[in-house]
Design goal:
23 helices; eight-stranded mixed sheet; alpha/beta
Length: 835
């Protein structure tokens, strides 16, 4: 039985293409089948080169303009349906659904490269269960019956989209433009691909479609739309354009690039990088033969993985007109490609064709002699059919039966059963690659990443600069050799940056611009205390504990340990002052002890005076507890010691003041105050006040005592070693009780300041308590407003200042009389009334 293996590449709407869609003729693709069929049993029809298979040689001179544009831009489904039905009709006679030469039935159809062609072909041929092999982008099948008989030499497009996504992320291109076809495939691309990019931080300056022309009457409208689209694309700040198209799209793009020459367009073209999907290839019209192709220089395209076939280029370069009988298109193609005409041609065009012209002499923009992805897919598709036929033929021989010593063949298998063998076909092609389909009938393969490099002579190269493996981990899905990529001339061979705005450098964070895509943002400096150590941080982060931001707020530096030490000037100064005042206090105490028998020392309870001087001396020395690295014992003693010592000192002052008042009142006749004047009252007041303060401190130490701590936040660049007060409430209770005693002492002394004694101690006590209260009232806001070791210095200053105020105001006048005016130190001067 004679079988036609029909390659149904029905591309009549592209009949005007001068550059063929596929790369070369394939020499006898089915040698393995010839072992099982006699010569002539198998006729391989329509398996010819891309050079001329579908390029109908129609010239502009004899082609009406309206029909020309109809064929250029309108992929007419009726022509595809017609060609599909012709395969089912008697050869040479077109009678739909009638075929008398059953021996010429097609067993499979290889279709493509346009998805619409595949879809329209499947609509007819799948009714007859004829297996279809598509080497172009697969259409979306609405019928399960169609998809059963459909086999794709084109991998799943989802893998391609994922690869483009990872490539954009690899180069850091987050601000792009998208151009798609104005048809169902373009809509599906936008629906599937755009959300994927948005979810991964890539946004769009524009998403436009290429103008569609259904009829010649719409050319003017389409040109106007094209101008507006051109302005959007070229006026965009996006440097990267993702272009989704199919085999015919390059023709439209080349027309699109020519718009500025025919229109007054003020937008200046800027450098753009094209990212082309795998469905696209370089095609053109005769009109475009000499058009500039530099626009594609530096473009990056995704292509189905392919390898150069052995002997492929040599076969093409030696191609001549001897195959005219087998291919009715070659003469017309020859005239188109070499701009010549044969002597018997009705169309006179250029010089006379000799037939000796060589395809290798044609520039790459007219004809390529390499194996492209589409050529490679056709080659593998043909061999897939051959191996499936071989498997089917072998299976048929296995089912012979023997009856009465004679072999009988079971009924022949139907050709539609070939699809079962196509699904399971697996073989190594002549390039040594494994070819097989997955469970969905899709080819299992990788994608190549191709960089386009053009030359002034209108030729170009497709340089493989990487690969894309959908089965690899996400971080290894795309592998690119950066140094092999040739970028467009506008970028001076430097990888371009395509972002909405400049990256926010370290030390800044992003803030979204209102009304703009999420990739567009302003850069704000990090607030104090925070850093950003990477580009384009959404938020600034706090430095870890123990570190602080540097001046540029892009790095965390370790903090220095800080405390008021004896090794620094402030610590030395305060320690010196404290020791000096304690030494002076000791001298005053020595003077009073030496002159303890004099009236001025004996007055107002000598023991209370000694106690006051000792407490003042201890208060000066207690300031030393605040200097140096905080330890556990120093933290326990600091505030409690100061609170108790000052309580003793202030209670002594209060006792002396009360003693003065009672002594004056006791001088009146028949006064009952005489029994209160004496040491017992003064001692009782000092002991009771001191014990009450000691009780408060004991409760503090028992419940929540102070402890050494680290203050990491008060001072930016340092870690402050401090004594944590533990219970702030108890701390202020100690200060509050001390303030209460000081206030009572001041009020009593103030009321007694005008008593008529020559040595009225109440006046001096008034001044001393005024100084004491002023110092400690100013201490609280100052203490709360300072940070770090400055807080310790403020407290030391308050201790020294208040103690010095008591010492100076109360005892210096007495020392002056004792040492410099001894004549005044007598009993007569002690009590002297006013006139």
């Amino acid at each position: 039985m004679v079988v036609f293996l029909v390659v149904g590449l029905v591309l009549l709407p592209l009949a005007m293409c001068e550059v063929p869609l596929f790369k070369c003729p394939i020499r006898d693709p089915l040698p393995i089948i010839h072992k099982y069929f006699k010569s002539g049993d198998l006729i391989i029809a329509a398996i010819m080169s891309q050079i001329y298979t579908f390029c109908n040689p129609i010239t502009f001179e004899n082609y009406p303009s309206e029909e020309l544009f109809d064929d250029l831009f309108h992929f007419n489904p009726s022509r595809t349906y017609l060609a599909s039905m012709e395969l089912l009709s008697t050869q040479g006679r077109f009678i739909p659904n009638y075929k008398c030469d059953a021996q010429n039935s097609p067993v499979a159809v290889i279709t493509g490269p346009n998805s619409n062609i595949c879809l329209h072909t499947a609509a007819i041929l799948c009714i007859y269960k004829i297996p279809l092999i598509s080497y172009g982008s697969a259409p979306r099948m609405d019928s399960k019956t169609q998809s059963v008989f459909f086999h794709q030499m084109f991998p799943n497009q989802a893998h391609q989209y994922m690869g483009i996504l990872h490539m954009l992320l690899y180069f850091g291109w987050t601000w792009i433009g998208v151009i798609s076809l104005n048809d169902e495939t373009g809509e599906r691309f936008v629906q599937d691909f755009i959300p994927m990019l948005s979810q991964n931080g890539i946004c769009f300056d524009f998403i436009v479609t290429m103008p569609a022309i259904a009829f010649s009457s719409e050319i003017i409208k389409a040109m106007a739309e094209g101008v507006e689209t051109y302005k959007i694309v070229m006026g965009s700040t996006a440097k990267v354009l993702v272009l989704h198209g199919e085999i015919q799209t390059m023709i439209i793009i080349r027309l699109f690039i020519q718009l500025p020459e025919g229109e007054d367009i003020s937008v200046k073209a800027t450098g753009k990088i094209l990212i082309l999907t795998a469905q696209m290839d370089f095609t053109s019209l005769p009109l475009q033969r000499n058009w500039d192709i530099s626009f594609i220089h530096g473009a990056i395209s995704i292509a189905i993985h392919s390898m150069e076939l052995s002997g492929f280029q040599k076969f093409l370069q030696e191609k001549n007109l001897t195959s005219e009988k087998e291919d009715g298109f070659i003469r017309q193609f020859w005239q188109q490609a070499f701009v010549c005409s044969f002597s018997d041609s009705t169309v006179e065009k250029g010089e006379t064709c000799t037939g000796e012209e060589k395809l290798k002499d044609l520039p790459g923009s007219v004809f390529e002699t390499i194996t492209t992805a589409h050529s490679y897919s056709i080659y593998n598709g043909l061999y897939a059919v051959a191996h499936a036929l071989h498997a089917m033929h072998s299976s048929r021989f296995k089912h012979r039966v023997t009856v009465n010593s004679r072999q009988w063949n079971l009924p022949d298998q139907e050709w539609w059963q070939l699809h079962h063998f196509l699904k399971s076909v697996s073989f190594n092609n002549s390039a040594g690659e494994r070819i097989l389909f997955d469970q969905n009938g899709e080819l299992v393969t990788e994608f190549d990443i191709v960089n386009w490099v053009t030359f002034p002579n209108q030729s170009f190269l497709r340089v493989k600069v990487g690969k894309m493996d959908s089965k690899a981990p996400p971080d290894k899905m795309v592998i690119i050799r950066d140094n092999a990529v040739a970028w467009p001339a506008a970028f001076n061979q430097v990888q371009p940056l395509s972002v909405c705005n400049e990256n926010c450098t370290a030390g800044y964070s992003r803030r979204k611009k209102e009304g703009k895509p999420f990739c567009c943002y302003d850069c704000l400096a990090c607030p104090p205390g925070k850093i950003s150590n990477e580009k384009d941080m959404n938020e600034c982060s706090q430095c870890p504990a123990g570190q602080y931001p540097n001046k540029d707020q892009n790095l965390c530096l370790p903090k220095d340990i800080s405390f008021l030490s004896y090794g620094e000037a402030l610590g030395i100064s305060l320690a010196t002052v404290a020791l000096s005042f304690s030494f002076i206090t000791a001298l005053v105490l020595g003077v009073f002890i030496k002159h303890r028998g004099t009236p001025i020392v004996k007055a107002n309870n000598r023991d209370i005076t000694y106690t006051l001087l000792i407490s003042l001396m201890l208060s000066f020395l207690s300031a030393l507890l605040f200097i140096g690295q905080p330890e556990k014992w120093t933290c326990l003693l600091r505030q409690t010691a100061v609170g108790i010592i000052f309580s003793v000192a202030v209670s002594c002052v209060l006792a002396k003041t009360v003693t003065v008042v009672l002594a004056f009142m006791a001088t009146k006749p028949e006064s009952r105050m005489r029994r209160w004047v004496g040491k017992k009252l003064s001692s009782f007041m000092v002991l009771s006040c001191s014990l009450l303060q000691a009780t408060i401190c004991t409760v503090w130490l028992a419940t929540s005592p102070p402890f050494p701590d680290f203050d990491m936040h008060s001072v930016t660049e340092t870690i402050v070693l401090e004594c944590n007060e533990g219970s702030v409430t108890m701390f202020y209770c100690v200060l509050g009780f001390l303030g209460f005693l000081a206030t009572i002492s001041f009020i009593v002394a103030f009321l007694a300041r005008k008593l008529p004694d020559s040595f009225n101690e109440a006046k001096f006590i008034t001044f001393s308590m005024l100084v004491f209260c002023s110092v400690w009232v100013s201490f609280i806001p100052t203490y709360l407003s300072t940070k770090g070791k400055s807080m310790v210095a403020v407290e030391i200053f308050c201790i020294l200042a208040s103690s010095a105020g008591l010492l100076g105001c109360i005892f210096f006048p007495k020392c002056y009389i004792i040492l410099l005016r001894p004549e005044l130190n007598n009993k007569g001067q002690l009590i002297k009334t006013k006139n």
